[in-house]
Amino acid sequence: MARSLRVAVEYIPQVKSALPLNGYPSQKAFATDVGVSVSTVKNFLSGKPVDYLYFVEISEKLGLDWQEIAYKELEAQPNHNLAIEETSPFLSGSPITHPRYFFGRQKQLKRLFNLLKRHPLQNAAIIGKGRIGKTSLLHYLKNITTTPVEELRPGQKYDWLPKPEIYKWIFVDFQDPRMASRERFLSYILENLGMKVPESCDLDNFMDVVSDNLHNPTVILLDEIGVGLQRCPELDDEFWESLRSLATNQTGGNLAFILATHESPIELAHHTGHSSPFFNIFGYTAYLGALSEKEARKLITSSPISFADEDVEWILEKSQCLPLFLQILCRECLFNLEDGETDNWREEGLRQIEPFAHLLSE
Q: Which residues pair with 50 in a beta bridge?
Protein backbone atom coordinates (compact mmCIF):
# COMPACT_ATOMS: atom_id res chain seq x y z
CA MET A 1 0.00 0.00 0.00
CA ALA A 2 1.28 3.52 -0.89
CA ARG A 3 2.39 5.64 2.06
CA SER A 4 0.47 8.62 0.65
CA LEU A 5 -2.59 9.06 -1.53
CA ARG A 6 -4.14 11.92 -3.45
CA VAL A 7 -7.57 12.65 -4.88
CA ALA A 8 -7.88 11.90 -8.60
CA VAL A 9 -8.37 15.05 -10.70
CA GLU A 10 -11.85 14.06 -11.85
CA TYR A 11 -13.06 13.81 -8.22
CA ILE A 12 -11.68 17.12 -6.93
CA PRO A 13 -14.92 19.11 -7.59
CA GLN A 14 -16.94 16.45 -5.73
CA VAL A 15 -14.49 16.45 -2.83
CA LYS A 16 -14.54 20.23 -2.49
CA SER A 17 -18.33 20.35 -2.53
CA ALA A 18 -18.47 17.69 0.22
CA LEU A 19 -17.14 20.16 2.81
CA PRO A 20 -20.17 22.52 2.89
CA LEU A 21 -22.54 19.62 2.25
CA ASN A 22 -21.36 18.11 5.53
CA GLY A 23 -21.94 21.35 7.43
CA TYR A 24 -18.38 22.66 7.62
CA PRO A 25 -18.17 26.44 7.04
CA SER A 26 -14.43 26.42 6.43
CA GLN A 27 -11.37 24.23 5.96
CA LYS A 28 -10.13 25.35 9.39
CA ALA A 29 -13.32 24.17 11.08
CA PHE A 30 -13.07 20.82 9.37
CA ALA A 31 -9.38 20.43 10.24
CA THR A 32 -10.13 21.16 13.90
CA ASP A 33 -12.93 18.59 13.96
CA VAL A 34 -10.83 15.85 12.35
CA GLY A 35 -7.69 16.70 14.28
CA VAL A 36 -5.37 17.36 11.36
CA SER A 37 -3.56 20.48 10.15
CA VAL A 38 -5.22 22.96 7.81
CA SER A 39 -2.42 22.35 5.29
CA THR A 40 -3.29 18.65 5.20
CA VAL A 41 -6.93 19.50 4.46
CA LYS A 42 -5.86 21.95 1.74
CA ASN A 43 -3.62 19.34 0.15
CA PHE A 44 -6.41 16.76 0.25
CA LEU A 45 -8.95 19.10 -1.37
CA SER A 46 -6.54 20.22 -4.10
CA GLY A 47 -5.44 16.73 -5.13
CA LYS A 48 -1.99 16.82 -3.54
CA PRO A 49 -0.54 13.78 -1.74
CA VAL A 50 -1.40 13.32 1.94
CA ASP A 51 -0.56 10.55 4.38
CA TYR A 52 -2.49 7.35 3.70
CA LEU A 53 -4.17 7.24 7.14
CA TYR A 54 -5.20 10.91 6.95
CA PHE A 55 -6.56 10.35 3.44
CA VAL A 56 -8.81 7.51 4.64
CA GLU A 57 -9.93 9.39 7.76
CA ILE A 58 -10.78 12.61 5.89
CA SER A 59 -12.64 10.71 3.17
CA GLU A 60 -14.76 8.81 5.67
CA LYS A 61 -15.51 11.99 7.62
CA LEU A 62 -16.87 13.56 4.42
CA GLY A 63 -18.86 10.47 3.51
CA LEU A 64 -16.65 9.66 0.54
CA ASP A 65 -15.42 6.28 -0.66
CA TRP A 66 -11.66 6.73 -0.33
CA GLN A 67 -10.90 3.84 -2.69
CA GLU A 68 -13.06 5.38 -5.40
CA ILE A 69 -11.70 8.93 -5.23
CA ALA A 70 -8.02 8.00 -4.83
CA TYR A 71 -5.75 8.46 -7.84
CA LYS A 72 -4.78 5.06 -9.16
CA GLU A 73 -1.50 4.44 -10.94
CA LEU A 74 -2.04 2.53 -14.14
CA GLU A 75 -0.83 -1.00 -13.65
CA ALA A 76 1.88 -2.02 -16.05
CA GLN A 77 0.36 -4.36 -18.60
CA PRO A 78 2.54 -6.78 -20.55
CA ASN A 79 2.78 -5.61 -24.13
CA HIS A 80 4.99 -7.66 -26.34
CA ASN A 81 4.85 -5.01 -29.04
CA LEU A 82 6.68 -2.53 -26.82
CA ALA A 83 10.43 -3.00 -26.70
CA ILE A 84 11.33 0.33 -25.07
CA GLU A 85 10.12 1.45 -21.65
CA GLU A 86 12.80 3.92 -20.58
CA THR A 87 12.22 7.56 -21.55
CA SER A 88 15.04 9.36 -23.29
CA PRO A 89 16.22 12.40 -21.30
CA PHE A 90 17.26 14.30 -24.43
CA LEU A 91 14.96 14.68 -27.45
CA SER A 92 16.15 16.28 -30.67
CA GLY A 93 13.60 15.32 -33.32
CA SER A 94 10.21 15.40 -31.65
CA PRO A 95 8.51 18.03 -29.49
CA ILE A 96 8.69 17.54 -25.74
CA THR A 97 5.28 16.45 -24.46
CA HIS A 98 6.01 15.45 -20.85
CA PRO A 99 6.59 18.44 -18.55
CA ARG A 100 9.41 16.70 -16.67
CA TYR A 101 11.74 17.11 -19.66
CA PHE A 102 10.85 20.72 -20.47
CA PHE A 103 13.27 23.40 -19.27
CA GLY A 104 13.25 27.18 -19.22
CA ARG A 105 10.77 29.75 -20.54
CA GLN A 106 9.71 30.72 -17.01
CA LYS A 107 9.18 34.38 -17.91
CA GLN A 108 6.93 33.50 -20.83
CA LEU A 109 5.07 30.87 -18.81
CA LYS A 110 4.33 33.32 -16.03
CA ARG A 111 2.88 35.85 -18.46
CA LEU A 112 0.86 33.26 -20.37
CA PHE A 113 -0.69 31.72 -17.28
CA ASN A 114 -1.46 35.19 -15.91
CA LEU A 115 -3.55 35.74 -19.04
CA LEU A 116 -5.43 32.51 -18.42
CA LYS A 117 -6.13 32.50 -14.69
CA ARG A 118 -8.59 35.40 -14.65
CA HIS A 119 -11.74 36.31 -16.57
CA PRO A 120 -11.93 37.07 -19.36
CA LEU A 121 -9.27 34.71 -20.66
CA GLN A 122 -6.91 36.51 -23.02
CA ASN A 123 -5.31 35.40 -26.27
CA ALA A 124 -1.59 35.10 -26.96
CA ALA A 125 0.84 34.33 -29.76
CA ILE A 126 4.09 32.38 -29.43
CA ILE A 127 6.61 33.49 -32.04
CA GLY A 128 10.00 32.03 -32.86
CA LYS A 129 12.09 30.50 -35.60
CA GLY A 130 11.93 26.84 -36.48
CA ARG A 131 13.12 24.27 -33.91
CA ILE A 132 13.12 26.84 -31.11
CA GLY A 133 10.53 25.00 -28.98
CA LYS A 134 7.14 26.53 -29.82
CA THR A 135 5.32 23.21 -30.03
CA SER A 136 6.96 21.96 -26.84
CA LEU A 137 5.79 25.10 -25.04
CA LEU A 138 2.21 24.50 -26.20
CA HIS A 139 2.33 20.95 -24.85
CA TYR A 140 3.78 22.22 -21.57
CA LEU A 141 0.94 24.71 -21.14
CA LYS A 142 -1.57 21.93 -21.74
CA ASN A 143 -0.02 19.35 -19.42
CA ILE A 144 1.90 20.94 -16.56
CA THR A 145 -1.00 21.85 -14.27
CA THR A 146 -2.55 18.36 -14.25
CA THR A 147 0.54 16.15 -14.32
CA PRO A 148 0.95 14.24 -11.02
CA VAL A 149 3.56 15.90 -8.82
CA GLU A 150 5.51 12.67 -8.48
CA GLU A 151 6.09 12.65 -12.24
CA LEU A 152 7.72 16.09 -12.22
CA ARG A 153 11.24 17.14 -11.29
CA PRO A 154 11.80 18.02 -7.61
CA GLY A 155 10.78 21.64 -7.10
CA GLN A 156 9.28 22.00 -10.59
CA LYS A 157 6.49 24.60 -10.55
CA TYR A 158 3.07 23.26 -11.45
CA ASP A 159 0.56 25.41 -9.52
CA TRP A 160 0.17 28.03 -12.23
CA LEU A 161 -3.65 28.04 -12.10
CA PRO A 162 -5.90 28.30 -9.01
CA LYS A 163 -8.32 25.60 -10.25
CA PRO A 164 -6.56 23.62 -12.98
CA GLU A 165 -9.14 20.82 -12.89
CA ILE A 166 -11.85 23.04 -14.41
CA TYR A 167 -9.82 23.99 -17.49
CA LYS A 168 -10.17 22.32 -20.86
CA TRP A 169 -7.23 22.27 -23.29
CA ILE A 170 -7.42 21.42 -26.98
CA PHE A 171 -4.27 21.02 -29.08
CA VAL A 172 -4.66 21.52 -32.84
CA ASP A 173 -1.82 20.61 -35.21
CA PHE A 174 -2.38 22.14 -38.65
CA GLN A 175 0.23 19.80 -40.09
CA ASP A 176 -2.42 17.11 -39.59
CA PRO A 177 -4.16 17.02 -43.00
CA ARG A 178 -7.51 16.29 -41.34
CA MET A 179 -7.50 19.79 -39.90
CA ALA A 180 -7.66 21.21 -43.44
CA SER A 181 -11.35 20.28 -43.56
CA ARG A 182 -13.59 22.86 -41.93
CA GLU A 183 -16.15 20.26 -40.83
CA ARG A 184 -13.48 17.92 -39.45
CA PHE A 185 -11.85 20.77 -37.54
CA LEU A 186 -15.14 21.85 -35.99
CA SER A 187 -16.07 18.27 -35.11
CA TYR A 188 -12.66 17.77 -33.52
CA ILE A 189 -13.14 20.80 -31.26
CA LEU A 190 -16.60 19.65 -30.16
CA GLU A 191 -15.41 16.09 -29.51
CA ASN A 192 -12.59 17.35 -27.29
CA LEU A 193 -15.01 19.61 -25.43
CA GLY A 194 -17.26 16.63 -24.76
CA MET A 195 -20.11 18.27 -26.68
CA LYS A 196 -22.50 16.61 -29.09
CA VAL A 197 -21.43 16.91 -32.71
CA PRO A 198 -24.42 17.93 -34.86
CA GLU A 199 -25.23 15.85 -37.92
CA SER A 200 -24.35 18.83 -40.07
CA CYS A 201 -21.31 20.38 -38.39
CA ASP A 202 -21.24 23.69 -40.25
CA LEU A 203 -20.23 27.02 -38.76
CA ASP A 204 -23.76 28.00 -37.70
CA ASN A 205 -24.40 24.75 -35.82
CA PHE A 206 -20.91 24.78 -34.32
CA MET A 207 -21.41 28.33 -33.03
CA ASP A 208 -24.76 27.40 -31.50
CA VAL A 209 -23.40 24.34 -29.69
CA VAL A 210 -20.32 26.08 -28.28
CA SER A 211 -22.01 29.33 -27.26
CA ASP A 212 -24.81 27.42 -25.48
CA ASN A 213 -22.60 24.86 -23.69
CA LEU A 214 -19.14 26.26 -23.04
CA HIS A 215 -19.07 27.26 -19.37
CA ASN A 216 -15.57 26.22 -18.26
CA PRO A 217 -12.30 28.01 -19.03
CA THR A 218 -11.12 26.60 -22.36
CA VAL A 219 -7.86 27.15 -24.21
CA ILE A 220 -7.41 26.15 -27.86
CA LEU A 221 -3.75 25.77 -28.82
CA LEU A 222 -3.12 26.30 -32.53
CA ASP A 223 0.20 24.86 -33.68
CA GLU A 224 1.72 25.61 -37.09
CA ILE A 225 -1.12 27.98 -37.89
CA GLY A 226 0.85 29.22 -40.89
CA VAL A 227 0.25 25.85 -42.54
CA GLY A 228 -3.47 26.23 -41.91
CA LEU A 229 -3.51 29.64 -43.56
CA GLN A 230 -1.39 28.65 -46.55
CA ARG A 231 -2.74 25.19 -47.41
CA CYS A 232 -6.32 25.01 -46.11
CA PRO A 233 -8.70 26.97 -48.37
CA GLU A 234 -11.75 25.88 -46.36
CA LEU A 235 -10.36 27.80 -43.39
CA ASP A 236 -11.26 31.17 -44.91
CA ASP A 237 -11.93 34.57 -43.37
CA GLU A 238 -15.49 33.59 -42.49
CA PHE A 239 -14.12 30.67 -40.49
CA TRP A 240 -11.60 32.78 -38.57
CA GLU A 241 -14.15 35.55 -37.95
CA SER A 242 -16.48 32.99 -36.35
CA LEU A 243 -13.72 31.86 -33.98
CA ARG A 244 -13.06 35.48 -33.06
CA SER A 245 -16.73 36.04 -32.30
CA LEU A 246 -16.78 32.99 -30.03
CA ALA A 247 -13.78 34.19 -28.05
CA THR A 248 -14.83 37.81 -27.70
CA ASN A 249 -18.64 37.78 -27.54
CA GLN A 250 -20.23 34.34 -27.25
CA THR A 251 -18.61 32.43 -24.40
CA GLY A 252 -18.54 34.79 -21.44
CA GLY A 253 -14.78 35.20 -21.44
CA ASN A 254 -14.22 31.44 -21.07
CA LEU A 255 -12.45 30.89 -24.39
CA ALA A 256 -8.91 31.82 -25.40
CA PHE A 257 -6.62 30.98 -28.30
CA ILE A 258 -2.86 30.57 -28.14
CA LEU A 259 -1.16 30.15 -31.47
CA ALA A 260 2.40 29.32 -32.49
CA THR A 261 3.95 30.81 -35.60
CA HIS A 262 7.16 32.11 -37.14
CA GLU A 263 5.90 35.69 -37.41
CA SER A 264 3.27 37.96 -35.89
CA PRO A 265 -0.35 36.91 -36.55
CA ILE A 266 -1.12 40.15 -38.40
CA GLU A 267 1.89 39.78 -40.69
CA LEU A 268 1.12 36.11 -41.20
CA ALA A 269 -2.46 36.88 -42.22
CA HIS A 270 -1.28 39.59 -44.59
CA HIS A 271 1.32 37.34 -46.24
CA THR A 272 -1.25 34.58 -46.79
CA GLY A 273 -4.01 36.80 -48.16
CA HIS A 274 -6.26 36.82 -45.08
CA SER A 275 -7.88 39.90 -43.60
CA SER A 276 -9.95 38.49 -40.75
CA PRO A 277 -9.95 40.54 -37.52
CA PHE A 278 -9.28 37.23 -35.72
CA PHE A 279 -5.58 37.96 -36.12
CA ASN A 280 -5.91 41.25 -34.21
CA ILE A 281 -7.03 39.69 -30.90
CA PHE A 282 -3.60 38.50 -29.74
CA GLY A 283 -2.66 41.09 -27.17
CA TYR A 284 0.43 39.36 -25.82
CA THR A 285 3.31 37.91 -27.78
CA ALA A 286 5.86 35.49 -26.31
CA TYR A 287 9.08 35.65 -28.30
CA LEU A 288 11.22 32.53 -28.04
CA GLY A 289 14.96 32.61 -28.54
CA ALA A 290 17.89 30.79 -26.99
CA LEU A 291 17.63 29.66 -23.39
CA SER A 292 19.45 31.61 -20.73
CA GLU A 293 22.71 30.08 -19.54
CA LYS A 294 21.06 29.21 -16.21
CA GLU A 295 18.22 27.41 -18.00
CA ALA A 296 20.66 25.61 -20.28
CA ARG A 297 22.72 24.40 -17.31
CA LYS A 298 19.59 22.99 -15.68
CA LEU A 299 18.83 21.02 -18.83
CA ILE A 300 22.39 19.67 -18.97
CA THR A 301 22.40 18.63 -15.32
CA SER A 302 19.22 16.59 -15.88
CA SER A 303 21.41 13.89 -17.46
CA PRO A 304 21.19 10.57 -15.60
CA ILE A 305 25.00 10.50 -15.74
CA SER A 306 26.82 13.70 -14.76
CA PHE A 307 28.92 15.37 -17.43
CA ALA A 308 32.47 16.54 -16.77
CA ASP A 309 32.76 20.29 -16.16
CA GLU A 310 34.79 20.79 -19.33
CA ASP A 311 32.14 18.99 -21.36
CA VAL A 312 29.41 21.18 -19.88
CA GLU A 313 31.29 24.34 -20.83
CA TRP A 314 31.93 23.01 -24.34
CA ILE A 315 28.23 22.17 -24.83
CA LEU A 316 27.21 25.66 -23.69
CA GLU A 317 29.69 27.27 -26.08
CA LYS A 318 28.87 25.19 -29.17
CA SER A 319 25.11 25.16 -28.65
CA GLN A 320 24.83 28.89 -27.98
CA CYS A 321 22.04 27.72 -25.64
CA LEU A 322 19.69 26.90 -28.52
CA PRO A 323 17.38 24.10 -27.32
CA LEU A 324 17.87 21.84 -30.36
CA PHE A 325 21.66 22.06 -30.20
CA LEU A 326 21.65 21.50 -26.45
CA GLN A 327 19.54 18.36 -26.84
CA ILE A 328 21.75 16.94 -29.60
CA LEU A 329 25.07 17.60 -27.88
CA CYS A 330 23.80 16.32 -24.52
CA ARG A 331 22.53 13.19 -26.23
CA GLU A 332 25.90 12.49 -27.82
CA CYS A 333 27.77 13.10 -24.58
CA LEU A 334 25.41 10.77 -22.70
CA PHE A 335 25.73 8.05 -25.35
CA ASN A 336 29.50 8.22 -24.98
CA LEU A 337 29.32 7.90 -21.19
CA GLU A 338 26.80 5.05 -21.28
CA ASP A 339 28.87 3.05 -23.76
CA GLY A 340 32.15 3.75 -21.98
CA GLU A 341 33.70 4.83 -25.26
CA THR A 342 36.94 6.75 -25.50
CA ASP A 343 36.45 8.26 -28.95
CA ASN A 344 35.86 11.97 -29.45
CA TRP A 345 32.09 12.33 -29.06
CA ARG A 346 32.44 16.05 -29.64
CA GLU A 347 33.26 15.48 -33.31
CA GLU A 348 30.13 13.40 -33.71
CA GLY A 349 28.10 16.05 -31.89
CA LEU A 350 29.29 18.74 -34.30
CA ARG A 351 28.42 16.52 -37.26
CA GLN A 352 24.92 16.04 -35.86
CA ILE A 353 24.20 19.77 -35.44
CA GLU A 354 25.81 20.78 -38.76
CA PRO A 355 22.56 20.30 -40.80
CA PHE A 356 20.91 22.89 -38.56
CA ALA A 357 23.70 25.47 -38.71
CA HIS A 358 21.39 27.90 -40.48
CA LEU A 359 19.47 28.32 -37.22
CA LEU A 360 22.41 30.22 -35.78
CA SER A 361 22.13 32.94 -38.43
CA GLU A 362 18.33 33.25 -38.63
A: 5
